[in-house]
Design brief:
Blueprint (H helix, E strand, L loop, with lengths): L15 H12 L3 H12 L6 H18 L2 H17 L3 H14 L8 H17 L3 H18 L2 H17 L3 H11 L8 H20 L3 H17 L3 H17 L3 H18 L6 H13 L3 H15 L7 H21 L2 H57 L4 H75 L4 H25 L4 E2 H16 L6 E8 L4 E2 L1 H21 L4 E8 L5 E7 L14 H14 L1 E7 L5 E7 L4
Parallel strand pairs: 2-4
Antiparallel strand pairs: 1-3, 4-5, 5-7, 6-7
Helix pairs in contact: 1-2, 2-3, 3-4, 4-5, 4-6, 5-6, 6-7, 6-8, 7-8, 8-9, 8-10, 9-10, 10-11, 10-12, 11-12, 12-13, 12-14, 13-14, 14-15, 14-16, 15-16, 16-17, 17-20, 18-19, 19-21, 20-21, 21-22
Length: 642
């Protein structure tokens, strides 16, 4: 079975070759014939999951009774696959280790099955994105197979390393490894052809990551041909999906339509679309590129309904919903349906927040698990240490030396206890000081935010009182009611933004960008004549404390409001930028009539003071510069020394 482009498929239909092999299993007259037939059919990757699990465990019993070491190893390999497909990677690795313990690695007849077991163990780690453990297996394995000179095993190992490089977004390294593997695969070998198809598909994916579409289409087309020859229907469907995505990106819609027709016909046979988001996104992206937005929206809404049938705490489900929401927002924006577009943007923000919360919870659970494992290991070490001490005392030959040993041991123990007690006392004192410092900082932050809310909300509340009094004194209430509504909405928005920032333990730079998009969407309804846009260029995301995120968002909000009210601009852009070097900035740019030297006027002085004060609390640098053409640029620049 090839470990490469995909994990094992979960399909409802099989190829004719697989159906024929299943019939061979049923017709087997002896246990030996049945075992051989099962091992042959389990090599297929278009077999139904339930059938595969049943056959894998049956093969284990038959192999144990046969006593054939090679078949015992091969059946253990398929049992490990069965556990892996049920997301039981620990059980999968246990099955592999038990089999390797029974096999003689010096026996050349067992080299192939031993290689399968070792390489698949690396795959179980790679599927968990534990690439460090995977590579700890693969690099020694590569050295081992290179010494033996087995070209197929060398190529397969290089391919597995290439997959890990691709998972880490190292497309050039992926291509480098696959180009080393490809010449080692002999043209007339069925096993080599299976590996070649996944190598070609992985190269196509890597070139797609580099946006080299011509090369990507070339290698992916070769992979499609290979999958068709070997009747590897599931991998064929994945390769067709990827081909559709590539051609859609270059607007080759005629060929995309041909591929989607093939994909749809293939789905009638293997039903992969039942649970594969990428299958549906192939059709959605085609409709969007063809400007068939109503068809795309209808398909997205249908898939969102089905995605909602799974658990609300499922991270995979929220990842699927997020991709559908992003496609939906693209459709509404293209149609000019700003209300629906705004709702889609809010759904995107909600999905990202949910993914953040779930991943945080999973990280905490992972830390807890590692802690429990470490505690058990420490207990075992302590038990071994105590046993060693008892043995030393038990086998002491001379009473004199035994007495001295006991005396020294007691003295050492008393000193250790005293030092340990002193250390515990010191640690407790440090902990109390740290906790008090945290409490003091939190109290100061609460007071500061409370004062901030009091000042800002107080001014809006005073305006609302004035509006109400004015209503009693005049018969022309239209403008007063409008101002009253604006002040009320401003209070609600300020409270919403404050709660958004403070309810999180940490906020990423991307989350602030998403919040700015929602803010501009909201403001755009009141300023239809002004184009509001966010230009996002985030190469490296990073986290901010809630209070810092609140200050940064407030500065951006103040700068946008100033531009809306005073600049006379018709385009206002918010540029959100970061780099892997640690540099980051936010720029609010307008093309209005304002000048930097006019900023110290009495009308805007208080607002500028508030922005500077917030920047000091944030520890970012704030500056005003003239725009290249006309207008003003407000730049909030991250201090890299922080």
């Amino acid at each position: 079975m090839v470990i490469g482009l995909l994990s094992f498929c979960l399909v409802c239909g099989q190829s004719m070759s697989t159906d024929s092999l299943l019939q061979k299993v049923k017709a087997a007259g002896t246990d030996a014939d049945k075992l051989d037939a099962i091992l042959e059919v389990c090599m297929r990757n278009d077999i139904d999951l339930d059938t595969f699990n049943e056959l894998a465990f049956e093969s284990k019993d038959l192999a144990e009774r046969s006593g054939d070491k090679k078949k015992i190893g091969l059946s253990a390999y398929f049992v490990a696959w069965a556990h892996y497909l049920e997301s039981n990677n620990d059980s999968s690795r246990i099955s592999i280790d038990e089999a390797l313990f029974k096999l003689d690695e010096s026996n050349p007849d067992l080299s192939d099955v031993i290689f399968k077991l070792k390489s698949f163990k690396a795959t179980t780690y790679q599927s968990e994105q534990n690439n460090t453990e995977a590579l700890r297996i693969l690099f020694p394995l590569l050295d081992e197979v290179q010494k033996k000179g087995n070209k197929l095993h060398i190529a397969q190992t290089m391919h597995l390393i290439a997959i890990i490089e691709g998972q880490q977004k190292n497309a050039l390294k992926t291509i480098e490894w696959e180009k080393q593997a490809l010449p080692l695969l002999e043209e007339d070998s069925p096993n080599a052809n299976n590996v070649r198809s996944t190598v070609l598909a992985t190269m196509g994916k890597a070139y797609m990551q580099l946006n080299m579409i011509d090369s990507a289409v070339f290698y992916n087309s070769k992979a499609i041909d290979q999958f068709e020859k070997t009747e590897d229907l599931y991998n064929l469907a994945i390769a067709l999906q990827r081909q559709a995505k590539m051609l859609t990106s270059v607007n080759d819609l005629t060929n995309v339509k041909v591929i989607l027709d093939r994909l749809s016909a293939l789905n009638e046979q293997i039903h992969m679309g039942d649970g594969d988001m990428n299958y549906w996104m192939s059709f959605i992206n085609y409709h969007i590129q063809s400007k068939e937005y109503d068809k795309a929206i209808a398909l997205i809404q249908d898939r969102l309904q089905k995605a909602g049938e799974s658990s609300e705490r499922n991270a995979t489900k929220w990842g699927i919903r997020l991709e559908y929401y992003e496609a939906l927002a693209k459709c509404y924006k293209a149609q000019g349906d700003l209300k629906s577009y705004g709702k889609a943007m809010e759904d995107i923000l909600m999905a990202k927040d949910s993914l953040y919360d779930i991943n945080s919870a999973e990280a905490i659970a992972d830390i807890q698990t590692k802690y429990e494992v470490q505690k058990k290991e420490n207990t075992i070490i302590e038990q071994k240490l105590q046993l060693s001490k008892k043995n030393i005392m038990m086998y002491g030959s001379l009473v004199f030396f035994l007495t001295i040993s006991i005396f020294l041991w007691l003295h050492f123990r008393n000193n250790s206890r005293r030092q340990k007690l002193e250390m515990q006392i010191q640690m407790q004192q440090d902990k109390m000081k740290s906790e008090q410092a945290i409490r003091d900082a939190e109290e100061n932050e609460r007071k500061r935010i409370a004062a901030d809310l009091h000042d800002n909300l107080g001014s809006y509340a005073a305006s609302i009182v004035s509006n109400i009094q004015h209503l009693h004194q005049t018969t022309d209430n239209a403008s007063t009611l409008r101002e009253l509504g604006e002040n009320s909405q401003a209070m609600v928005s300020m409270l919403s933004d404050t709660i958004w920032a403070l309810k999180k333990e940490k906020l990423s730079f991307t989350m602030i960008s998403d919040r700015v998009k929602v803010m501009l969407q909201r403001l755009g309804r009141s300023y239809p004549g002004i184009q509001l846009e966010v230009i996002e260029d985030i190469e490296e995301d990073f986290l901010l404390q809630p209070s810092h995120a609140f200050q940064l968002f407030s500065i951006i909000q103040e700068a946008v409001n100033n531009a809306l009210k005073h600049s006379h601009a018709n385009v206002i852009s918010v540029v959100i930028h970061s780099r892997k070097t640690g540099s980051a900035y936010v720029r609010v740019m307008d093309n209005g009539t304002g000048k930097v030297e006019q900023l110290e006027s009495s009308e805007s002085g208080n607002g500028l003071y508030n922005m500077r004060h917030r920047a000091e609390l944030l520890h970012w640098q704030l500056s005003w510069k003239p725009n290249n053409d006309q207008g003003i640029v407000v730049e909030i620049n991250r201090n890299n020394t922080n």
